[in-house]
Structures are given as structure tokens and as C-alpha cells.
Automatic annotation (TrEMBL):
Keywords: TPR repeat. This is Tetratricopeptide repeat protein. SUPFAM superfamilies: TPR-like (SSF48452). Pfam families: TPR_19. TPR repeats lie at residues 53-86. InterPro entries: TPR-like_helical_dom_sf, TPR_rpt. It comes from Rhodocytophaga rosea. It comes from the Bacteria. PROSITE patterns: TPR (PS50005).
Length: 107
């Protein structure tokens, strides 16, 4: 986690708090060293920008890593649903593959 990068991302967020990419970039930067902090920002995206598909993969992976299996499954499934609704086959396939791998690991 790069402190100057975080400062820059917070500045972008301050300039445009309604751009989901700014929240996503911040969450992704925190993901490198502090998954629980990253999850706070992913959860904001899941709540306030539920159509922002890139969030689902990373949020589900963080939930899974933290042992929150029900939330991980819900997040994978919701992301698959949203990507299908948007006609985003690539994202849907990536989420489906990640979900299938995670389910296999759980068995």
C-alpha cells in the first residue's frame, strides 16, 4: 500500500465522490495490505453502486478470505446476475469461473 497513492486516490474521491471508479480504486489499493479496510469500500460500492460489476469479484474474494462464506457466495451470485442483466458476458464468465473454483475449494 503506497501512502502517496492513497493520498492521490482520496483527492480524486474528494473531487468526484459520485464516480464509482474512485471508490473501487481506493478499495483496490487497500486490498494490498488491509483487506478489512478494503472491504469497507467494496461494501459501499455494493450498496451505492450495485451495477458496478468489477466490485463483485474482489468483494467476494475478500469475504471468502475472511471466512465469510455466506456473504462470499451471495456476492458471487449477485455479481453473476448483474453482469448477465448488463449483457456483460466476459464479466459473467469470470465471476462464474471464480465462483466455481471457490465452491470446489469449499468441498
Amino acid at each position: 500500500m503506497n501512502q502517496s497513492r492513497l493520498e492521490q486516490l482520496f483527492e480524486f474521491l474528494k473531487e468526484d465522490p459520485d464516480d464509482p471508479f474512485n471508490w473501487y480504486a481506493l478499495a483496490t489499493e487497500y486490498l494490498k495490505k488491509d483487506p478489512k479496510e478494503a472491504l469497507k469500500y467494496y461494501e459501499k460500492l455494493l450498496t451505492d453502486y450495485e451495477n458496478y460489476v468489477p466490485t463483485y469479484y474482489h468483494a467476494a474474494k475478500v469475504y471468502a478470505a475472511l471466512g465469510e462464506h455466506e456473504q462470499a457466495e451471495h456476492t458471487f451470485r449477485k455479481g453473476i446476475q448483474v453482469s448477465l442483466q448488463q449483457g456483460n458476458r466476459k464479466a459473467q464468465q469470470e465471476l462464474q469461473n471464480a465462483y466455481n473454483e471457490w465452491k470446489d475449494e469449499m468441498e
